[in-house]
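Continuing the series of single-chain predictions for the mutant panel. This is the parent chain; the variants come on the following pages.
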Amino acid sequence: MGLFKIGIGAALLFLVGVTPAWAICGPVDEWIDTQAASEVYPVKAGGMLLRGVHRIIESPVELACHVYKGSTEELQYGVGVLKGFGYGLLWTLDSILRGAWDIVTFAFPDYHGEPGGHAQECWGANAGGATA
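Parent structure:
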C-alpha cells in the first residue's frame, strides 16, 4: 500500500508541475477550431486533420485532470479518485472518438466535424480552454 501512496503523490506532483504549461493550450485549441471551420477547403482539411491528431494526443490529460479534480473535491478517501477515474475515462474516450472521426472525415468538402467538448476546469478558471 505504501508504493501506491508514493505513486499517487508522484502523479499529483507531476500534475502540479505541468499546470502552467497546460494553460497555453486554450488559444491553440481555439486556433485549430477556427481552421477546421474555415470555408477554404485546404485550410479546413488541414485544420480537421490537425484537430483530430491533437484530440487523440491530448486525450490522456482528461483522465489525469478528472482524477486530480475528484481527489481534491471529495472528502471521503478514495471516492473522489474513483469518480474522477470514471469521468476521466468517459471524456478520454469521447476525445479519442471525436479525434478519430475528424481524421476519417477531414477530406469531405462541406463537413467541418463535430467540435463538441466541455470546459476543462481542473487547474483554475478554464485553464485548458474548451476541449473537444
